[in-house]
Specification:
- This protein is mainly alpha-helical and 197 residues long.
- 81% of the residues lie in helices and 0% in strands.
- The chain has nine helices and no strands.
- It starts with a helix and ends with a helix.
Length: 197
C-alpha cells in the first residue's frame, strides 16, 4: 500500500491549506487565529521538507507568514476581505511556478523514497510534470471561483463554494494516488514480461 503512504505524505504537504479552508471562518478574529495555527502547522509538519528545500513547503510557509503579519499583526482589512482569492492564487501560483521552473512539486515528493539512480528517469519526470499540471489546473479552478464570487451576479451558497474548494484538493489527491498506482502496476507488468523473455 505504498500509494496510501505517498497520499499521506502529500496530504501533510497540504495540511496547512486544508486547516485554513476548514477553519478560517468569517471574522477577523477567526482569520487571525487560523493564520497562526497554519503557520505553526507549516513549520511543524513540513520541517523535513523545508530543510530539503521543497518549493511547496517554502511557498506555504511564506504565505502563512504573510497572513500572520498582514492579518494577525497589522490587521489589514483588505487582505482579510480578499483572503480566499489571495490563498487560492498563492497556492496555484506556487504550483504553476514549480512547473515553469522545471521543478514540478510532485517530483520532490516522488524522489523522497526512490534511489538516486531513478531520480532522472524520463518516465518519472514526465509523470511528475503531468501530476503537477493537473494540480495547477485544479487550483486555477479555485481562483476562478474566488473571482466569480466578486462579480455582481446571482451567487451560490457558501457551502457550495466550500465544497468546490474541498473537491479541488480531494480531486488532486485522488488523481495523484490513482495515477501513481497505475504507473506502478505498468512497471511491475513490464518487469514481469522482461523476466519471462
Amino acid at each position: 500500500m505504498r500509494e496510501l503512504k505517498d497520499t499521506g505524505v502529500l496530504l501533510l504537504g497540504f495540511l496547512p491549506w486544508l486547516l485554513f479552508l476548514f477553519f478560517s471562518g468569517h471574522s477577523m478574529e477567526s482569520l487571525e487565529r487560523i493564520s497562526w495555527v497554519c503557520l505553526a502547522a507549516s513549520l511543524t509538519f513540513g520541517f523535513g521538507e523545508l530543510r530539503s528545500g521543497y518549493i511547496l513547503q517554502w511557498g506555504t510557509l511564506l504565505f502563512f507568514t504573510g497572513c500572520v503579519v498582514f492579518v494577525g499583526l497589522l490587521h489589514v482589512v483588505w487582505v482579510a476581505t480578499h483572503m480566499d482569492l489571495l490563498a487560492n492564487a498563492s497556492l496555484a501560483g506556487i504550483i504553476w511556478a514549480t512547473l515553469f521552473a522545471g521543478r514540478p512539486f510532485a517530483l520532490q515528493y516522488a524522489r523522497k523514497d526512490l534511489p538516486k539512480e531513478r531520480w532522472n528517469d524520463p518516465r518519472l519526470l514526465e509523470g511528475c510534470r503531468f501530476i503537477t499540471l493537473v494540480w495547477a489546473m485544479l487550483m486555477s479552478v479555485s481562483i476562478g471561483i474566488s473571482v466569480y464570487r466578486r462579480i455582481p451576479v446571482p451567487q451560490a451558497s457558501e457551502q457550495i463554494y466550500f465544497a468546490i474548494s474541498l473537491a479541488t484538493i480531494a480531486g488532486g489527491v485522488i488523481f495523484t494516488t490513482l495515477f501513481k498506482r497505475q504507473k506502478r502496476l505498468q512497471r511491475e507488468k513490464l518487469a514481469r514480461s522482461d523476466s519471462l523473455s
